[in-house]
Design goal:
The complex is a heterodimer of chains A (about 180) and B (about 200).
Chain A: H1 3-14, E1 19-20, E2 25-26, H2 34-44, E3 50-51, E4 58-66, E5 75-83, E6 89-96, E7 101-110, E8 113-118, E9 121-124, E10 128-132, E11 138-142, E12 153-160, E13 165-173
Parallel strand pairs in A: 1-9, 4-13
Antiparallel strand pairs in A: 2-10, 3-4, 4-5, 5-10, 5-11, 6-9, 6-12, 7-8, 7-11, 12-13
Chain B: H1 2-5, H2 12-27, H3 32-36, E1 47-50, E2 55-57, E3 66-71, H4 78-92, E4 101-106, H5 114-122, E5 129-132, H6 135-144, E6 149-152, E7 160-164, E8 167-170, E9 176-180, H7 186-199
Parallel strand pairs in B: 3-4, 4-5
Antiparallel strand pairs in B: 1-2, 1-5, 3-8, 6-7, 8-9
Helix pairs in contact in B: 4-7
The chains are: A mainly beta (about 180), B alpha+beta (about 200).
């Protein structure tokens, strides 16, 4: 077990604060026929905006990152994670191609003052969705090189505490973007 | 030294003051016009350097409503999101929106040179003015508006800055009139500007 995964499991077991489950919303169970899912996986591949995995049914969608420049090498990444399984899952790390360092961060807002802190993991409750979104829990991307150019796509990979990995192409949105659309 | 610049307004007085502002907003069911008829007892004029290296004085934009935000260009989440909300409010105001001056005061003058700010403001579709200055100048302006900021992860060249994310609205006479949360509905920001402009 990797260090992050071990830390995450320990935190989950301890019920500690660093595991974030922000913006979780309950979703209805979805029945996916094997053949249908297979066809989708073959037909859409990684270029799709949604990555569906038959075995665990953890679905990534609406992934995007903010544009960066040669002088402004910090960016942020966002994605929605649908956990269609009957068990909680925990996101322990995110990587994005072109960003050597990626960290899960969350924001706290008190008295008009906002503070950012890193978090070890993000819990996605069973049959729920968690949105990594602006102003909340998100992925901080450092030392981006080459710069993320608008309309390009970059590969975003999420690793969960059971070592499962899911990837999705994230579209690069303008500096002023507040969502993928 | 940047670390020495870290300012905190954790004094009970300031916290209470900001809490009072928040309470006024939350408790009021009236329109922005009524709230904006009152002025807040902090804020005030200041002078900083804009993205073209020229001196900017708040008094130079008398007659126009001003949105003021403290942020930094290496902030990839809160700052662009808040600026987008301000710009959305401007868009909703149509021709009136063009009268608004939006100021982005950097709390990271070490990295945010005029050249960096120039590139940053150009990345937004609506005009805004990026302002920087010496550490002391930035600290003075922040103090006037009861804003705070602190550097974190200072051992990294990509350090972060925790900072006040309020959106300040200054009236055409240069008086601070309202204080909004970063995630305020753009329509409400627009309504507050309409109210200010209806006074003149």
């Amino acid at each position: 077990m990797g260090r992050l995964a071990a830390d995450a499991r320990r935190i989950v077991e301890a019920g500690g604060q660093p595991v974030i489950g922000a913006r979780a919303t309950r979703t209805w169970p979805v029945v996916v026929l094997g053949l249908t899912s297979t066809a989708l996986a073959i037909g859409l591949g990684l270029a799709a905006q949604t990555t569906d995995t038959r075995d665990t049914q953890i679905v990534l969608r609406d992934a995007w990152v903010r544009e960066s420049t040669a002088t402004r090498t910090v960016s942020a990444g966002y994605v929605t994670i649908d956990n269609r399984t009957p068990r909680d899952v925990t996101l322990v790390s995110v990587s994005v191609a072109g960003a050597p360092r990626a960290e899960l961060h969350t924001m706290t807002h008190e008295q008009g003052h906002s503070s950012m802190r890193s978090v070890k993991a993000v819990r996605i409750p069973a049959r729920s969705s968690v949105e990594l979104a602006p102003g909340g829990t998100h992925v901080m991307l450092f030392d981006v090189d080459p710069p993320f150019a608008q309309a390009a796509t970059v590969m975003m990979t999420l690793t969960f505490d059971d070592h499962a990995r899911r990837s999705i192409r994230a579209v690069v949105r303008p500096q002023s973007a507040t969502s993928i659309r | 030294m940047m670390a020495a610049l870290q300012i905190r307004f954790a004094s009970i007085g300031v916290v209470l003051l900001l809490a009072m502002v928040g309470c006024q907003r939350d408790q009021s069911s009236s329109a922005s016009a009524q709230r904006s008829a009152e002025r807040l007892d902090f804020g005030g004029d200041f002078s900083l350097t804009d993205q073209d290296g020229r001196t900017f004085r708040l008094e130079d934009v008398r007659g126009r409503p001003v949105f003021l935000f403290f942020g930094y260009t290496s902030c990839p989440d809160m700052c662009p999101m808040t600026m987008s909300r301000i710009m959305s409010a401007q868009d909703r105001l149509g021709d009136q929106g063009s009268r608004i001056v939006t100021l982005f005061v950097s709390v990271d003058p070490k990295r945010d040179t005029p050249a960096v700010l120039k590139e940053y403001v150009a990345s937004f579709s609506t005009p805004l003015i990026g302002l920087t200055g010496s550490e002391a100048e930035i600290a003075q302006v922040a103090a006037k508006y009861h804003a705070s900021f602190e550097l974190v992860q200072t051992d990294s060249p990509n350090y972060l800055v925790n900072h006040t994310t309020a959106i300040f609205l200054i009236d055409p006479q240069g008086r601070l009139r309202e204080y909004f949360a970063f995630d305020e509905d753009p329509e409400r920001l627009a309504a507050a500007v309409r109210a200010l402009l209806s006074e003149t």
